[in-house]
Write a structure and sequence with these properties.
With about 500 residues, this protein is α+β, with helices and mostly antiparallel strands. It is built from 17 helices and 19 strands. It has a six-stranded mixed sheet. The chain has a four-stranded antiparallel sheet with strand order 13-15-11-16, with helices on one face. The chain binds zinc ion.
């Protein structure tokens, strides 16, 4: 559709739309803005006071974690130690933002109005969405710089975007390549860091310190940098390449990859092969992850005879608990043995069982009617899931019943991605790393990543983070990556992407 607005925008870089808002609407926004100035919550003022958090670290952290609420940015010196305003509130506030457009009714009514939507359509935006997170805006700038189209999806809710940049291939009907990373990181304890955790300081040894330098903003940026370099070199590939950035991986992907995979939007990407996160490696070899264990969080809710602590009652919850814990620990010992007996095995090859929660009891001299014990189980690929579950129930029956099993998480078995001649993408990947003389160690991932959801719908996925000679510091204090390792990783990805996108 031809659009006069678009012509104007292209011509001038801006557009003026007269009478877009009514006088009443302007007034309502003005009144709302005024109220925000006068009524900014005292505790929020404190967060921003910048008096106790003069360093960049505090501000950076705040900036990254503050997208969930309306936030108030005060002028330096406007707020006292206790959050009290030191100057007239009408000049104390620098700006208000972040969740303002979602949460404040006056701003929400305009931002999400059909008029704004209509303008977006006229400017040729496809599926316009209001994006407020700094990360999405950063990626949009990258997409613009690289001249790649970008789409933002919200498979779970407004707060959890999925961003996809697309570089169309020469044969766009072929299944595509997906380079996936997650935008979220785990929290930090700034007092345990020797550098600001969101500052990306580089020390004299060339180490870049920041949360996400290993897990996994680094890899997301390498994906972007590799594609940018390839594009600039004039390279063309058969297959379309999608670079995706998802939310919520660290919390299990419930608001990110998991709900995205079954959508029509995901299916429309027509993914034939995906790459996602791996792990750093302290030596010269690079781990490559082709499978994951299944996470089961099992609760045993154990009821038994209650009564006075001076008696010897039959079938108490405590006896049953002891039996169940004993059986689980017995199984655990067999897995410890397997690891000890076979140096070839790594932790991802065996089943791990850990007692993680205990609860119950009312008073120290009362035999309780109910006790709870929870285990974190990671079922290895060689486990028969039905048999494992049948065993849990059998133990409960053997000890006299009255035990209810519930699951906080119970992942199904997901077949591993083939790393043999049957998988042409693996062959293309391997050819790239062989040619660069990179030693690859295929293995099963210890934890859980978004790759699992991709594999679960039958798409081959490999977890790979090119960070060798790097201590494994994901989720740890002072997470870092060496600058030259990072840059080398960009080259490694260029080679791998070139190969897999031409399969
Ligand atoms: Zn990660």
């Amino acid at each position: 559709m031809h659009s006069k607005l678009l012509d104007e925008l292209n011509e001038n870089g801006y557009i003026v739309i007269e009478d877009f808002l009514t006088a009443e609407e302007v007034d309502s926004l003005y009144q709302a803005g005024r109220a925000l100035c006068l009524d900014a919550p005292q505790n929020n003022r404190k967060i921003f006071s910048t008096i106790k958090q003069e360093d960049a670290q505090g501000k950076e952290l705040y900036f990254m974690e503050s997208g969930d609420k309306v936030r108030y940015f005060f002028e330096k010196g406007a707020v006292g130690d206790e959050g009290q305003l030191l100057v007239d509130p009408m000049i104390a506030l620098n700006k208000v933002g972040h969740a303002l457009h979602v949460e404040h009714p006056a701003f929400n009514a305009i931002t999400f109005s059909n008029r704004v939507r209509e303008i977006c359509w006229q400017l040729n935006y496809n599926k316009p969405a209001v994006c407020q997170t700094p990360c999405v805006e950063f990626l949009r700038r990258q997409a613009n710089l690289m001249d790649l189209p970008m789409k933002v999806y919200y498979p779970a809710n407004e707060k959890n975007p999925v961003v996809v940049l697309t570089w169309k291939g020469l044969n766009p009907e072929l299944p595509s390549i997906l380079l996936n990373s997650h935008m979220d990181v785990v929290p930090v304890f700034p007092e345990n860091w020797t550098h600001p955790p969101f500052g990306a300081d580089i020390d004299e040894e060339g180490r870049i310190f920041a949360r996400g330098t290993q897990d996994m903003k680094s890899v997301g940026m390498q994906h972007l940098a590799a594609v940018r370099a390839l594009k600039r070199s004039g390279a063309k590939f058969k297959r379309t390449i999608h670079i995706s950035f998802v939310a919520d991986e660290e919390m299990g992907g419930r608001y990110g990859m998991r709900p995205f995979v079954p959508t029509d939007d995901f299916r429309a990407l027509n993914v034939g092969f995906a790459m996602d996160e791996g792990l750093a490696s302290p030596d010269d070899h690079l781990p490559l992850f082709y499978a994951e264990r299944a996470v089961w969080r099992v609760y045993f809710n154990i009821s038994g005879t209650a009564g006075h602590g001076s008696l010897l009652l039959p079938n108490t919850a405590g006896e049953k608990l002891n039996y169940i814990v004993g059986k689980m620990m017995e199984f655990r010992r067999t897995q410890v043995q397997r690891l000890q007996n076979n140096p070839e095995l790594v932790i991802g090859d065996v089943t791990t069982i850990n007692l993680t929660k205990l609860g119950g009891g009312v008073q120290s001299n009362v035999v309780p009617p109910l006790l709870m014990v929870c285990f974190d189980c990671r079922l290895a690929l060689d486990v028969d899931f039905e048999e494992f579950e049948a065993n849990l129930h059998k133990w409960c029956a053997d000890v006299g019943g009255g035990i209810e099993i519930t699951y906080e998480q119970k992942q199904p078995k997901v077949p591993p991605t083939a790393i043999d001649d049957s998988n042409p993408f693996w062959l293309a990947f391997k050819k790239a790393t062989d040619e660069m003389h990179i030693s690859i160690k295929p293995q099963i991932f210890t934890g859980g990543t978004d790759s699992r959801y991709i594999r679960a719908v039958g798409i081959p996925a490999l977890g790979f983070s090119p960070m060798n000679n790097t201590p494994v510091l994901l989720h740890d204090h002072d997470e870092f990556i060496q600058a030259d390792i990072y840059l080398r990783g960009v080259q490694i990805f260029q080679k791998i992407i070139s190969n897999v996108a031409n399969v």
